[in-house]
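We emphasize that the prediction below concerns an isolated chain of 203 residues; any contacts that depend on oligomerization or on bound cofactors are therefore not represented. The input was used exactly as deposited, without trimming of termini.
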Amino acid sequence: MKRRRALEIIGVAAGAPLLAPGSAVAEALALGQRIRSVAGPVGGAPPATLTPAQARTVTALAETIIPRTDTPGASEAGVTAFVDALLTGWLDAPDRDRFLAGLDEVDPLARSAHGAAFADCTPDQQADLVARLDEDLDRRRRDPAIDETQTFFYDMKRFTLAGYFTSRPGLRSLGYRIIPGAFEGCVLLDQYGTGEGRPGGQP
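Result of the prediction step, given as a token string:
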């Protein structure tokens, strides 16, 4: 699938960006910047797909996965806007709906465990809940009868890492030198095998 191929490319940044071949990293960064150009600047327009409550949850989850330390955290990298852009223009409807359904289960889980929505929990409580989600994902990964890639938290982690490591703050945290002109925000997606830009979307 064309959109899935684009997400496979961006997944390089969610895997091991320092270990991937240079050409694969460059391809992922260019595509990530293309997605980011649709999302707009950090703190810009409100989300197109996420509700305000869902956006708060995504922000809190992403910041728990990549907190601010001596390097910028997920919020400073605009991860929520990046995730919203993926949901709005890049995921097929079943994948988008599965992600949103899983996202909507996070607050009930938090309220059951700690009596508050996830975004209103303390950092320690948020870390505890994310650890539970991570343990469940690991359990699914070890079960040959389950495809863990079809779960919400798998995508949440992947999108968070991809959004972070294709951002300028994320690249700086890895020690990448950001050279003017290195990002290609207007590159046609057809270049990445999405079929965009050709009549009928043909490859």
